[in-house]
Amino acid sequence: MKASHRQVAELGPAYGATWQYGGTIGLYIPCPSSENSRAHIYMNVGSSAAKMRETNVKAANKGMRKLADLTGYTARTLAHRYKCEGADELPDGPVQLRAGDGKL
Hints:
Strand order of the largest sheet: 4-3-2-1-5
Order of helices and strands: EEEEHE
Low-confidence stretches: none
Strand content: 25-35%
Number of strands: 5
Mean pLDDT: 84
Distance between the termini: 10 Å
Helix content: 10-25%
């Protein structure tokens, strides 16, 4: 993810990336099962308030912070709902957004 995206998303063992122009965060949540030890739940959370094409950058950044909070909450909720092994390893709080190396 880091090599191909400008901004990556992390929440403990969950990982993904942002699509700033679309105002979305995609996240892979580890959810191993007896059939597949490498299974994941993929979620994509978006908000028009988080689009980086906004002329008001301050408002867009505030939107991304709120989206990171919502994505963290949703990831924890899904992991617990589907009884994913390691769900308790997802930390409280927002998804952490970090710089990536790529151009997507």
